[in-house]
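Troubleshooting: if your tokenizer reports a length mismatch, compare your output against this known-good record of 77 residues.
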Amino acid sequence: FKLDIPAAEKGWEKNDKTIILLDGERLPATFDLGWLNYGSLASYKVLEPSTKEITKKLVSEYGKDAVNGVILISTVK
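Known-good structure output:
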């Protein structure tokens, strides 16, 4: 059995072109977030390209790959 969810309701998902920034340094999009030590995280933010306006802002700030979303991660210093 498989429930077919309309594309509009599926939401955003990380893919192999999503921008991942760890303390301002870009990581490979294939980086496995499971390798992070969650005890050392200060914060994280997922910037989803949910509207044309948001996508345009992300692209202007982070580059063309931002159409696939941006994940910002900060660690405890």
